[in-house]
Write a structure and sequence with these properties.
heterotrimer, B: 248 residues, alpha/beta, six-stranded mixed β-sheet, four-stranded antiparallel β-sheet, 9 helices, 25% strand, globular, C: 320 residues, mainly alpha
């Protein structure tokens, strides 16, 4: 590979990694707070992309879509937690199973309303060109994705360190029962957490749409990738989602260039290797929920 | 105390949890057939010691020998097969299964699970004998979770006995029991075959003095004093750090 | 007649009635259709029954069980194609060996995890098998799948006709049911339940729980592979759908709706699932939604499943 290609692919890898981080952040947040692996995460991601598609088709406004989609999907998450998950609190595995049902319903209804075609969303105005990097042209949108990922990570880190919400998250990660004893409204906290997690999935769906398109089955792809990211990086921690996203993103990108036939085998090898060395992921909390 | 070969030996056993020294160099020598009590205040490292002996926890440093052979960092199932059994402080039972089935699972462990047959009449009889041995006759059909606290401790003991162990670790056998239940289970343990080596962690000093041949006092991860019960009872340091609260 | 003897007699009768379904239903107008649907229900039931060995008995919630079903389907079809033989035993042997080996490899990693982590890992690994099947075009036909899968023969017996094939599928289903019944009653099956209820105690008793879990994973994988081989023969077609997450979820939903840990529950669930997916869609277009809602209701409100509910109702009727 020539140096330019290496740089290009490195940027692609980082860009994909940033997207994976955005995607996995919501999954990781919900797990960190509630000990629930939300298997409807891919469904929320897909719903976000389809809401964005509708908004863009109606108004042509990508940025409006990036606001509306997380609001809609976040509201759905805000409803699902009290309606469905709350009654199973403490039964973590059943809560996880329940999210499978939610994802089935979301996937099926989207297919019913929007059909089975592949749609695309154009790059937003201003980001639809390429810039010169190391003598090669590079799509500006991918740089934007990297920037967005960094921004999101920064916001997360800030909220986590500075605010009361951060203190609640840290406490929630350690012991929800203790929080409740301290007089924190657990019901509200969990509903908001689930809503924010769903909204994050939707944001990832919108951001990914111009690159990967909008199509049935995108929910499964997204779910699998986000699961791999959190398995590799470690569940429930921000740093785990970043590390997992970066590692899986670059490995996947370079894998596809270097040995296209075995890109997936490479990811498989990474997952297997990490699990052998650290069963809770690279930066995971040592706590295994049943 | 029966003089025999050494059954359990630990050499300078250490274990840290994030900088905190739970065990800070514990060396013990327990002979075959001996009944050794390990006492000490909460946080002295008693349960950590048990967890390392049974292989559920790895020591940071040091060695464990079982009947003269290395038993450090071995898996719990391997150590169980080498004759180590444990009565947990908090019962570890098969909650929805009947008491009888709990014991059968324990009895079947020796031969392993890879047998096509279902348990025959002999297995069933063996299970009933064990239930009777621990005072649970007639209660075999009751799910573990529906037994009283005292009965659950008895079942816990039956599971350990079913393994036909050489060494039995008893982690607070009388915890949470009424005086009558405590007396009953203490006499039950006292009636065990003298060839069985017992290591007992217990807070109830009457139980300790009734059962133990020797006592090791653990304090802040170290063996503070070790000796015959009378000697330990009279030891001034022990009275200060531990017994003082109980005896004085 | 004593109760066990009555149950045995009824079971044998039921099995005979099931296997001979095409014969005694031949007068019906829709016999052909019913035979096809019932055949596919039985194939899914075999997959669900094998999954329940993990989910119900051992407490291992695998969400990637289709990997072994698909591996069996591909293995039987490819072996027949490459070796130029339609021998039934060859097909089953290929399916069992390949799916068991795959289960061994995946299981080595997956059984180190518990609960939710086990679920995530099996899902992720199965999706990788899916991607491999998708990419290995030379072997699997990629996205086109393998069409024209030959139906098998055994000692000159030809299973090409729909009736003969149904009888094969139904017989294997009965055998699998019988096997799992034996397994559940055996020391091994009891040990799996012990594993589900208290792994720590099992280890302390001297059971090598990792090996126990791995063996269950391989056994369940091999049985799923048998189901896969039957699926390929039934549809004369094997595709990436057979290894996909959709099939895994179908099996999981069957287990949960029918009832975990009850011998016939998963088979009942499979009947319900295929009824919703294959019989209902002629009247409603959103079968998956119906399944999703059903699944949510059973997980949240009736975790014991249909068989569990039926048992409870029967007990209430019998009690004075």
């Amino acid at each position: 590979m020539s140096p330019e290609v290496v740089v290009q692919q490195a940027l692609n890898g980082i860009s994909f990694g940033a997207l994976l981080f955005i995607l996995a952040a919501g999954l990781s947040l919900i797990f960190g707070m509630m000990d629930v692996v939300n298997l409807a995460h891919g469904g929320f991601y897909m719903l976000g992309a389809y809401v964005a598609l509708t908004v863009v088709q109606r108004t042509g406004q990508f940025w409006l879509a990036l606001v509306i989609a997380p609001l809609v999907v976040g509201a759905l998450g805000l409803l699902i937690e009290p309606l469905l998950l709350r009654r199973l609190r403490g039964r973590h595995l059943d809560q996880v199973l329940l999210t499978i049902g939610v994802s089935l319903v979301i996937g099926d209804l989207i297919g019913l309303v929007a059909g089975r075609e592949i749609h695309s969303i154009p790059f937003p105005a201003g980001l639809d060109r390429s810039i010169a990097i190391m003598g090669g042209d590079y799509p500006l949108y991918r740089i934007f994705v990297i920037g967005f990922g960094v921004l999101l990570a920064a916001v997360f880190a800030l909220v986590h360190r500075r605010s009361q919400a951060g203190a609640l998250i840290r406490a929630g990660v350690d012991d929800a029962a203790m929080l409740s004893a301290l007089g924190v409204d657990i019901d509200r906290l969990f509903a908001i957490t689930f809503g924010v997690g769903a909204a994050l999935a939707a944001i990832a769906g919108v951001i990914a749409a111009p690159v990967f398109g909008v199509f049935p089955g995108m929910d499964v792809d997204a779910l699998i990738y986000s699961l791999i990211v959190v398995v590799v990086g470690g569940l429930g921690t921000l740093s785990g989602a970043i590390a997992g996203g970066a590692l899986v993103g670059t490995a996947d990108t370079f894998g596809k260039v270097l040995f296209p036939q075995f890109a997936l085998a490479l990811i498989f090898a990474i997952v297997a290797f990490v699990l052998l060395l650290r069963p809770t992921g690279l930066l995971g909390r040592v706590r295994i929920a049943r | 105390m029966t003089e025999g070969r050494v059954m359990i030996e630990t050499r300078d056993l250490r274990r840290e949890f994030g900088g905190v020294k739970a065990l800070d160099g514990v060396s013990l020598t327990i002979a075959e057939g001996e009944r050794r009590a390990i006492i000490g205040p909460n946080g002295a490292g008693k349960t950590t010691l048990f967890n390392i002996l049974t292989g559920e926890l790895e020591p940071t440093a040091g060695r464990v020998l079982l009947a003269g052979e290395d038993a450090t960092r071995r898996s719990p199932h391997e150590l169980a097969r080498r004759g180590l059994a444990r009565m947990y402080q908090r019962n570890e039972l098969f909650e929805p299964l009947p008491a009888r089935e709990n014991v059968r699972l324990a009895l079947a462990a020796a031969a392993g699970p890879y047998r096509p047959a279902s348990p025959g009449p002999r297995d069933r009889a063996a299970a009933e004998v064990l239930l009777e041995r621990v005072g649970l006759e007639g209660r075999g059909g009751v799910p573990a979770r529906s037994l009283s606290h005292g009965e659950r401790r008895q079942l816990e003991l039956a599971l350990a006995l079913a393994q036909r162990p050489r060494v039995l670790l008893l982690d607070e056998p009388t915890a949470g029991m009424s005086p009558a239940e405590t007396a009953r289970i203490t006499e039950l343990i006292a009636s065990f075959d003298r060839a069985l080596t017992l290591v007992i962690v217990e807070h109830d000093m009457d139980v300790v003095f009734r059962l133990a041949d020797r006592i090791s006092v653990l304090h802040e991860g170290r063996v503070l004093v070790e000796g015959a019960p009378e000697a330990v009872r009279g030891d001034r340091t022990v009275n200060e750090v531990y017994l003082g609260k109980v005896v004085a | 007649m004593k109760r066990p003897a009555a149950i045995a007699a009824l079971s044998i009768l039921g099995a005979a009635a099931l296997v001979t379904f095409p014969l005694w239903s031949s007068g019906w107008e829709s016999s052909r259709y019913a035979t096809t649907i019932l055949r596919d229900m039985l194939v899914l039931a075999i997959l669900a029954l094998s999954l329940d060995l993990l989910v119900g008995s051992a407490g291992l919630p695998s969400l990637g069980h289709a990997a072994f079903f698909g591996a069996g389907a591909y293995a039987a079809a490819i072996a027949a194609q490459r070796l130029g033989s339609d021998d039934l035993l060859l097909g089953f042997a290929a399916a069992i060996v390949v799916s068991a080996l795959l289960a061994l490899v995946i299981g080595l990693f997956a059984v180190r995890a518990a609960g939710i982590f086990f679920l995530m890992l099996t899902l992720a690994f199965a999706q990788m098998v899916f991607a491999l099947a998708f990419q290995a075009v030379d072997l699997t036909g990629g996205s086109n799948g393998l069409a024209n899968v030959h139906r098998p023969m055994l000692f000159g017996l030809d299973f090409n006709g729909p009736e003969a094939l149904f009888e094969l599928v139904a017989s294997v289903f009965v055998l699998v049911l019988l096997l799992l019944w034996r397994v559940r009653a055996s020391t091994y099956g009891r040990a799996l339940v012990g594993l589900r209820e208290n792994e720590r105690r099992m280890r302390a008793l001297g059971y090598d729980t990792t090996r126990l879990k791995l063996s269950a994973f391989v056994l369940a994988g091999a049985l799923a592979g048998v189901g896969g081989a039957l699926s390929g023969w039934s549809l004369r077609f094997v595709s990436t759908n057979d290894v996909g997450i959709g099939r895994s979820i179908e099996a999981f939903v069957s287990v949960l709706i029918g009832g975990t840990g009850s011998l016939v529950g998963p088979a009942v669930g499979a009947v319900v699932v295929l009824f919703v997916e294959r019989v209902l869609p002629s009247s409603i277009p959103f079968a998956e939604t119906v399944l999703g809602v059903l699944f949510i209701v059973f997980v949240a409100a009736a975790r014991q499943g249909i068989v569990g509910l039926a048992r409870a109702a029967y007990a209430r009727v019998r009690a004075p």
